[in-house]
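Annotators were shown the component list below and the corresponding predicted structure, then asked to write short factual statements about the assembly.
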Amino acid sequence: MNKNPEITLTFGVLNEASAEESRVAITPESAARLLKVGIQPAVETDAGLKAGFQNADFETAGVKVLPKSEILSKSDIVGYIGLPDAKTISAQKKGSFAIGLFNSLLNKDIAGQFEGAQVTALDINLLPRKLSKAQSMDVMTSQASVAGYKAVLLAANEYPGFFPMMTTAAGTIKPASVLILGAGIAGLQAIGTAKRLGAITTAYDVRPASKEEVLSLGAKFLDLASFGGPDLSAGQGEGGYARQLTAEEMAAQQAAVDKAAAQFDIIIATAQVPGRKPPVLLTKAGVDGLKRGSVIIDVAASSLGGNVEGSKPEKTVLTPNGVKIIGAPNLPSSAPKTASNLLARNISDIVSHFVSEGKLVVKAGDELEVLAISGKKQEVK
Ligand code: NAD
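Structure shown to annotators:
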């Protein structure tokens, strides 16, 4: 007996491969999940090549391989990774859906662009992550894990020394000391990876709850108070996230981080506050105080600025005192196969959630209704 329901919808994904992007928002594995809920998957020709998926791999999994114009004109829902341009949005079918990491709290125009094209856009960045149902849909978590892991590998490659301690006939090699700023999903993964490579690992986060998590991974927690830092015991924000610090707290934090940073060889910064510009944790004074050969990876680097003064997204800046600042906002793209598998699984679960009686519907009162930043919601009768 064929357990798959009748196919009534099409989910299409474009080729977003560029110098900065190697991921794809569908994989043969996620395609099987879509087919199971009555969705025909489609992918633009060659979209998976950089992530290691051939057109034939998709065809074998039942995915239609089509040119871009057909993906846009035929799909009931289009999956995006990067922000689509106005031309792409307007080429989507009227009444269709779009799903992606639109970061609509920062990208103020995007909702209006989809609205103008009569497309219902679902912004994954608005996922209510505390919902147990949302765990398998959480793109921010899955991609942050990849970013934390790769940040450490990148640092290890760029650092002119070793991470682990080693005793050799020619003498003992001192281990590298790593400071991880921000101990959320990416930071915790970075701690685990740095420890596995043998570095002396210390971490810092503004949320009081994070100290225990850091210690449980066998890392040290940086006590900023001993460097004159602010008392942030009320540092927890809404929903377990960091709150925005006051200007005075921020200044005191920066001064203390700048001072503390001088004892580390490698700094990995992953601190964010959802929907806001990343906080500057390490200023130019702090960078200037680092040892020659030190490496900074700013995972929070963005066009709005990052956690480290002087970092530039996708660029390596070599300071006059010989410190490398690497702006690395798109690290998941450097492990494109794993990152795509996780991302595509997350997206297929969100899409499947909105399928009802062969249609895509965002019902008023649905627990994921908040994702819709444009388009009409349907009242439940
Ligand atoms: P994020 O990417 O928004 O931020 C990364 C980290 O930076 C956070 O830990 C944050 O506290 C920290 N940070 C922000 N401002 C800072 C500052 N000024 N100084 C130092 N650190 C600063 O967060 P995230 O990694 O997505 O997760 C944050 C929290 O949410 C974690 O506790 C995580 O476990 C939790 N979370 C829970 C769920 C769930 O319940 N299902 C899902 C995802 C995340």
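Statements collected:
1. The mean pLDDT is 94.
2. Residues 129-130, 135, 138, 140-141, 144, 181-187, 204-207, 210, 240-242, 245, 270-274, 279, 281 surround nicotinamide-adenine-dinucleotide (CB under 6 Å).
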